[in-house]
Amino acid sequence: MLSTLSTLPEGYRALVVGAQGGIGAALMARLQADPRCGGVWGTARQPDAASQLLPMDLCHEPSIEAAMQALRVHGPFHVLINAAGVLSLNGVPPEKRLADLNAEHMAQVLAINALGPAVWLKHAVALLPRQGRCVVATLSARVGSIGDNRKGGWYAYRASKAALNMLWRTAAIEVARQRPEAVLLALHPGTVFSPLSKPFVPDGPEQPGLMHPENAAARLLAVIDTATESGSFKAWDGSTIEW
Ligand SMILES: NC(=O)c1ccc[n+]([C@@H]2O[C@H](COP(=O)([O-])OP(=O)(O)OC[C@H]3O[C@@H](n4cnc5c(N)ncnc54)[C@H](OP(=O)(O)O)[C@@H]3O)[C@@H](O)[C@H]2O)c1
């Protein structure tokens, strides 16, 4: 199945942050295969030697600024996607109970999942066209929904994604003043087989909401292509998730 972003202009340009991750790499591949796409760029903390990716660490603002500056000559970009994020960090799994909390660890998770993407957005906005439709999506997670939290646990990850959602919603209001057709989205990709989910998801066949990255990427791009409500929180199937 081909992913075609039909609501973006012919020759649209795309950027994927976290392009070597499970979902990020699948998004890159699908965008590269879209005949309407005029070019796809990606970032990674340590790009593979053979790749054309730009080095960028979400926890290091100078690297963000340098990468976004380097991309200016290729712009404008009509779709920007942040596909980076962590659940476990430095071998430490997400917390099951209050007794597991460690402020330093939580601060690092928050820095990667929420603060870094916001600082990236600060620099990436300049890549967007002044007029016409464009989309800036960040991968969030359903567990970042406060209203939908029924199981508890995963304190830092949940809090970081809730913070990310608030930052995206807030930015959507500001960005709309200069770029009324820009759509900012926080997206839940479903549960996706990837290095991030591996410790928590049993191997097995796909089922609704449990997908291989290629399939999740196709679903996410379909949502990106059709979404019109800036500042919304959507799942892989296009449904709206409560905050
Ligand atoms: N997989 C799921 O089931 C699932 C469910 C809900 C939400 N999500 C969200 O989807 C996104 C992608 O997850 P995934 O499953 O594709 O995970 P993944 O395969 O582990 O990829 C995560 C990516 O994040 C990047 N990253 C980590 N720290 C970074 C930093 N400081 N600066 C820049 N990049 C950094 C990693 O880059 P390096 O290559 O440099 O290490 C990696 O490419 C995450 O935001 C995750 O929370 C995933």
UniProtKB/TrEMBL annotation:
Record Pfam families: adh_short
Record-level GO cellular component terms: cytoplasm
InterPro entries: Fungal_SecMetab_SDRs (IPR051468), NAD(P)-bd_dom_sf (IPR036291), SDR_fam (IPR002347)
Highest rank taxon of the organism: Bacteria
GO molecular function (one): oxidoreductase activity
Gene3D superfamilies linked: NAD(P)-binding Rossmann-like Domain
Protein name (record): SDR family NAD(P)-dependent oxidoreductase
Native species: Aquabacterium lacunae
